[in-house]
Amino acid sequence: MTPGKQAPAEKTPADNKQAARSRRTTERLLAEARRLFAEHGFAGASAEQVVAAAGVTRGALYHHFDGKKGLFRAVVEQVQAEIKQRVRVAVERESDPLEMLIAGNDEFLAACLEPGVRRILLIDAPAALGWEAWREIDEANVLGEYRAFLGLLMDQGVLKPLPAEALAHVISGAANEAALWAAQADDPAAALTQAQRTMAELIRTLRAAG
């Protein structure tokens, strides 16, 4: 240990119990908020409804999330992280690099077709959080992944040499729009298949010659 510095105090049983209670409170707030935001939207689900459903006080909401908006951001981040994991699993099933990109895009579209995900992520998040905050979350979970993978495929000679930043925005934007369109179609399942097939064909046109 560095001279003059004290060793960190060991956690007591009381500290551990408090941490466990805090974790349970956070998990209940996230779970109930996600359910209510999915059913009623950000504007339609009040802070009072969330804390009542979670069985906690309004003070607990502000302590853990600094209010309804902070809680909604945490829900959006949770949804994005789950989709990111789903996409990675889908990608790992493929061996061809370009088909990996298509599989990941297919899984993203399928995930966004779920009503709660569509409402939270694509409809309410940009308006409730503001464009910059929404873009920050998207960058960490979707856009950043697209950019990195596209850059890798170009470096490997799999894709035509195009500006990775521009291409990432084009594909990500197209995926978001396709997800919204499919979810609002008269036959969402059929529209999803069409969206996946169309984007797959577009992506395949990016393969480098030879």
UniProtKB/TrEMBL annotation:
PROSITE patterns: HTH_TETR_1 (PS01081), HTH_TETR_2 (PS50977). GO terms for molecular function: DNA-binding transcription factor activity; transcription cis-regulatory region binding. Residues 1-24 are annotated as: Disordered. Pfam families: TetR_C_41, TetR_N. InterPro entries: DNA-bd_HTH_TetR-type_CS (IPR023772), Homeodomain-like_sf (IPR009057), HTH-type_TetR-like_transc_reg (IPR050109), HTH_TetR (IPR001647), Rv0078-like_C (IPR049484). This is TetR family transcriptional regulator. Residues 23-83 form the HTH tetR-type domain. The keyword Nucleus does not apply. Gene3D superfamilies: Tetracycline Repressor, domain 2 (1.10.357.10). Keywords: DNA-binding, Transcription, Transcription regulation. Residues 46-65 bind DNA.
